Amino acid sequence: MTHKTFIFIHDQELLLQFEQNNKFKNLKDYCYVFVGKKDVSKISNLKNVLIARNFKENLEDYPLFTAFTGWYMIWKNNLVTTDYVSLIEYDVVLSEQFETIIDNFFNEDCDLVGYVPIRLDNYHFINNNNWVRSVLPAIKKIHNLDVKNIIDSIVKTYPDSFWSSTNNITFKKEIFNEYMNWFEPLIDEIKEDEYCGHAQERAISFFYLIKNKKMKLTSGLIKHFQLNSHGTQTHHVDYDESHKKLINNKI
CA-to-CA distance for 90 and 225, rounded, in angstroms? Predict the structure, then answer.
C-alpha cells in the first residue's frame, strides 16, 4: 500500500531547520504544507513544500482553523493520491518506527489511526463549551445529529472509550474523502468561531464514532508539543525550550 505524509507548518525558519537536521528522514514520502501568510521567500522553490495560499482552492482567510486549512487545500486540489495519508502538525516528534507500525495497521484493514488518545469522559472533549459551542449546533443543523447525546450514550455503555485528540491523524484515502465531504458543510457554520480549529479536531472523533469507522488509537508513536501558535489553548508554553526539543528529538 502507498503512503504519504503531509506536515503542516507556518514558519519557514523552523522548516529549514527540520530539513537541515533531517528530522523526518525516516519517512519514505513526505512534504510540507505551508499555511498562513508569513514569509516564504526562502522555501518557495523547494520541491517538497506546498504553499497553501498559492492554490486556487484554499481556506487561508480563516487561519483559526489551524492545520485544517492545509487539509482543505490538499483535498480540494486532489493532492491525496496514495492509499493512505498521514496529516501531521509541525510541533511533533515521531517514533523511528512510525511508518512501519502504521503500515501494519493498514495492512490489517484499519480506516484511520489516531496518536494522542484521551478518554471520552474527559471534560475538554464535549463538556467544555468553548471547544464545541459552534460545531454541535452546526452538526445538528446540517446532519440532524445530537452529538452530545450520542457521546453520552457511548460513555454510559463503554466507559473506557477514548477519542483521538490533536490534528495528527492517518486516514485511508477514501475515509479522508468521506470525512472531508461530511465536514465541509459545517465550515461556514463555524468559521468565525475563534475555537473553530479545536471544534474541527473533535469533529474527527465525532465522525468516526458516529460512522463506526475502524479507528486505531495509539500511544507512543507521536509526541505532540502543542505549541499553541494561535493562542487559543489554555496552557503555557516555553517556546524557546520546546523549539530546541523539536529540532533533533526522537521518541
Answer: 9
Confidence band of 245 (pLDDT split at 50, 70, 90):
low
Domain extent, residue 114, equals 3-225
**Domain harbouring 193, CATH code:** 3.90.550.10
Q: Which helix (H) or strand (E) holds 125?
A: helix 123-126
Provide the domain count of the chain: 1
Give the whole-angstrom CA distance, residue 172 versus residue 84.
4
C-alpha to C-alpha distance for 78 and 69, rounded to whole angstroms: 14
| Alpha-carbon span 130 to 232, nearest angstrom | 10
Q: Using CA atoms, how far apart are residues 215 and 96, in angstroms rounded to an integer?
A: 22
CA 98 to chain centre: 16
Read off the pTM. 0.91
Which H/E stretch holds residue 223? strand 222-224
Q: Which of 202, 2, 225, 235 is nearest to 93 (CA)?
A: 225
Please indicate, yes or no, if residue 109 is contained in any of the structural domains: yes
Helix 173-183 to helix 196-210 angle, to the nearest 10 degrees? 120
Give the C-alpha distances (Å, rounded to integers) separating 184 from 46, 200, 203, 214: 30, 10, 11, 21
Q: Which amino acid is at 119?
A: R
